[in-house]
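WARN retry 2 of 3 for item q-0093 after timeout on previous attempt; input resubmitted unchanged.
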Amino acid sequence: MLVDVVPVGDVPARVKREASAGLRAVYDCDVTVHEPQPIPDGAFDANRNQYRAEDFIELASRIGSGEKNIAVTPKDLFYRKRNYVFGLAYLDGNGSVVSTYRLQTSSDGGFSERNSEDIFDDRVRKEIVHEIGHTFGLEHCDNKRCVMNFSPTVREVDMKEQNLCGTCQRQIL
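OK item q-0093 returned
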C-alpha cells in the first residue's frame, strides 16, 4: 500500500516528516511526499475567510500517486456548516486532507506540560492517521483513546492515542 502525502501551500519539512512517520507506524505502508502544490483555485471562501476542504481532497485524489492520497496544508479549512475541520476524508475514498492551522499550540486548551513542538507533532500524526483511517472505511470510534475517535477540539485530539484500538485494527486487516 502506498500513501502519497501532497503538501498544499507552504508546508514545513517537519510536518511532512511527522505525517510520513505516523502513517508508517500505524498502517505499515509505503509513503511518498509529492511535490508541493498551490492552493486550489476557487477554494477560498471570502465570506468565511477559510478554504473549502473538499477542494483539497479533490486535488489530492487527482494528482496523488498513491492508492491513498492526503493533502496537508497550513490553511484554515471548513466543511459545509462546520466552523472548521482539522481534516476531512470520504469513507473508502482515495483522497483526504489535514489542516495544521488549528493544531498549533498557542493557548488552545490542550495540554501545556509538554513542549509545544512535541504536542504539535503528535497532533499532526494523529490527524493524518485519523483521516487515512476513513479512506480505509473506518468510521468514528466510541473509544476515547482510539485515534479514530471524533475529536472536534485540540484537547480531545491530545487525549487520544496515535494508534487504532483493537476493534478498528481488526476492521482493516
